[in-house]
Design a protein that fits this description.
The chain is α+β, with helices and mostly antiparallel strands and 695 residues long. It is built from 16 helices and 23 strands. The longest helix is centred in the middle third of the chain and has 32 residues. This is RasGAP-activating-like protein 1.
Length: 695
């Protein structure tokens, strides 16, 4: 039986952050650490003290963790990035909230003495005889210590303290993985020893030695003296802790973060144990019960909360994709949903299991299709960065100076220019969509075909003629394309969030696209009457949308369902990319640190590829499916830090070992990030976890 710890967190937004730049603003981004490992970095939101990120992360932590920490940074083009503040959450605090929490939390100040990491290996023992009593502490080694020097290393030494007595090891220069193998001895007064048998403790501190100035604290371990009276002697790895646990929240002066965090700890049984459940789920769609009768899927919906329904839907979609039964699965859920709906205006408007399953299905199989259709237009909008505004209350004439070379444009000129730009962008998006029938994944088209059939059966009346279109467009436009236009970064379409100007353009376009998805039925009924100039373009698009949806479902059902859906429709996505040092072992030979070559790597859900440079046309590939293990290599093997070995197996069953060194880099914003995971290749642990997750 295996245990799996899954940590879900969403960095929603920040508020009232302090200004760090001379312009009176900041350029905030977040770095997330699990214990000592950087696991995520959000995009930078430029010139904003109330940034919105909305980025979600899921981490699978096989060894568990102690602390989850969020650092808010201010990015600077020159010099070091400024630290704004942090939020630390212990595992116990997160686990206490069984359903997770969604709260605003004040940022606390960052104290260097609290920023410790790593572990130390010790063996402690009390020696007593008739004449004297002594404490022996065998300081063996430490690992993953915090870098305190400009070189990215430290000069660590260890100090043992008990009852005002102390002893120190030697100093090991320029390393974060020191090996001392020294025994420190403290001669203890017998009387003091007896007095402190119950409550005394031994403190082991690790420090970074500095030739100039005071030494830097690296962490400490406190061991109750009572533990040393036991047999056998106390020994093992001990986690280094900060000087104290008090954190000053600065009374909100540093601002706050809104975070959603949830911890799930599961016990994973051997796969054979899940076969009865898989069989039950398969039978539920192969031999479905009557619409009004209960089934395993309807029971699942009844026992799940609205918060967990999305996770349940995602898991079910993956199961049925793997079984090649995603079409009958979704048809079963949609049939029950349609049958239970009496008012067509409320069809699929709730967060039911059917709605969530359709949404997760489109994201699973349609992401590559979404990219092909939208990415050229989204890139164009980002590159042009035009000022667009229709709301009279928000028009800023000072931002419109590029519109007119004769001085500031009038409000009417700004609105006229904005309408023209939005019509052009909307027309480009709609042309790309309506001409993309052949690009849409066949399994997606079949699901829409089945959905339309069920809606026509339930609402055959002439006055409900548009319902068959609304059911499909509600998913296609309102739950996939419009959200992707609104926040392109969350759908892999852009590396960074849009700035304020571009974000406003995308918001207005998303509103227009939403109206198109509603077939223009709600135009003129809302509060945003300033959108009226776009109504003709929206209504014109509705005609082409209906024709597009008719063509979209014109597909042979039987041929598609026989295809291996999981392999065909799940796209390969670049998870990380950046420079690494590589060496491929070629038989038994002495390896040197100079054997490594600097190459540019791309890690996707299918392969680890590399070339001489990012623009190099010829690439080599390591298939994720061929990776047997990814292991960290001890620092002493090559006298290099952050080295790991990737063990692969070829078609003949022969094993091959490739060594990779991850260089720590400050320029993390130059790395390309994925849809909801934003971190650079800076450590072997991070890349190892990603490789294992990809498998």
């Amino acid at each position: 039986m295996a245990r799996n710890t899954s940590l879900y967190f969403r960095i929603v937004e920040g508020r009232n952050l302090p200004a760090k730049d001379v312009s009176g603003t900041s350029d905030p981004y977040c770095i997330v650490k699990v214990d000592n490992e950087v696991v995520a970095r959000t995009a930078t939101v430029w010139k904003n003290l109330n940034p919105f990120w909305g980025e979600e992360y899921t981490l699978h932590l096989p060894m568990g963790f102690h602390t989850l920490t969020f650092y808010v940074m201010d990015e600077d083009n020159i010099g070091h990035d400024d630290v704004i503040g942090k939020i630390s959450l212990s595992k116990d605090v997160i686990a206490a909230q069984h359903k997770g929490f969604d709260n605003w939390l004040n940022l606390t100040r960052v104290d260097p003495d609290q920023e410790v990491q790593g572990e130390i290996r010790l063996a402690l023992e009390l020696h007593r005889d008739a004449q004297r009593s002594s404490l022996h502490c065998h300081v063996i080694e430490a690992r993953d210590l915090a870098p305190r020097d400009i070189s990215g290393t430290s000069d660590p030494f260890t100090r043992i303290i008990y009852n005002n007595l102390s002893a120190e090891t030697s100093i090991i220069k320029k390393t974060r993985f020191p090996h001392w193998d020294e025994t420190l001895e403290l001669s203890l007064d017998e009387g003091d020893d007896d007095d402190d048998d119950e409550g005394g403790s031994v403190t082991v501190e690790v420090w970074d030695w500095d030739m100039v100035g005071k030494n830097d604290f690296l962490g400490k371990v406190e061991i109750p003296l009572s533990c040393l009276h036991r047999s056998p002697p106390l020994q093992g790895w001990f986690r280094l802790l900060p000087l104290g646990n008090t954190e000053d929240d600065a009374s909100g002066e540093l601002g706050a973060l809104r975070l959603k965090v949830r911890l799930a700890e599961d016990r994973i049984l051997p796969s054979v144990c899940y076969q009865p459940l898989i069989k039950l789920l398969v039978e539920a769609v192969i031999s479905p019960s009557k619409v009004d009768e209960p089934s395993p899927l309807t029971l699942l919906e009844e026992v799940t909360t609205a918060e967990s329904r999305q996770d349940v839907a995602m898991t079910l979609v993956k199961i049925y994709l793997g079984q090649g039964l995603v079409v009958p699965f979704l048809d079963y859920l949609n049939t029950r949903e349609v049958h239970s709906t009496t008012d067509p205006n409320t069809l699929f408007r709730s967060n039911s299991l059917a709605s969530k399953a359709m949404e997760q299905f489109m994201k699973a199989v349609g992401m590559l299709y979404l990219h092909e259709v939208l990415k050229p237009i989204i890139n164009r909008i980002f590159e042009e960065r035009k000022y667009v505004e229709l709301d009279p209350c928000k028009i800023d004439l000072s931002c419109s100076r590029r519109i007119s070379f004769k001085g500031l444009a009038s409000e009417a000129e700004v609105r006229e220019s904005s309408v023209g730009l939005l019509q052009t962008y909307l027309s480009s998006i709609m042309e790309a969509i309506v001409s993309s029938v052949s690009q849409c994944p066949p399994v997606m088209r079949v699901v829409f075909k089945q959905l339309r059939k069920r809606v026509e059966e339930q609402f055959p009346e002439p006055e409900n003629e548009d319902v068959k279109y609304l059911a499909i467009s509600g998913f296609f436009f309102l739950r996939l394309f419009a959200p992707a236009v609104l926040t392109p970064k969350l759908f892999h379409l852009r590396e960074h969030h849009a700035d304020t100007r571009t974000s406003r353009t995308l918001l207005l376009l998303a509103k227009a696209l939403q109206s198109v998805g509603n077939l223009g039925l709600q135009l003129g009924h809302g509060k945003e009457q300033w959108m009226t100039p776009l109504h003709p373009s929206i209504l014109c698009s509705v005609v082409s949308v209906k024709d597009f949806l008719d063509k979209l479902i014109d597909i042979d059902h039987d041929n598609v369902c026989e295809a291996p859906q999981r392999a065909v429709f799940l796209p390969s996505v670049i998870v990380k990319e950046g420079f690494l040092q590589k060496y491929k072992a070629k038989g038994p030979q002495l390896l040197t640190r100079f054997a490594f070559k600097k190459l540019y790597f791309w890690l996707s859900s299918e392969s680890l590829s590399y070339a001489k440079s990012p623009s190099w046309q010829v690439r080599s590939y390591i298939s994720i499916a061929s990776v047997c293990a990814v292991e960290r290599v001890d620092e002493h093997a090559f006298q290099l830090q952050n080295v790991m070995q990737v063990i692969t197996q070829d078609t003949d069953g022969e094993l091959h070992t490739t060594y990779l060194q991850c260089k720590v880099t400050r320029n993390t914003h130059s790395i390309q990030y994925p849809i909801t995971h934003t971190y650079s290749i800076t450590s072997p642990d991070t890349l190892r976890q990603t490789l294992q997750a990809s498998q």
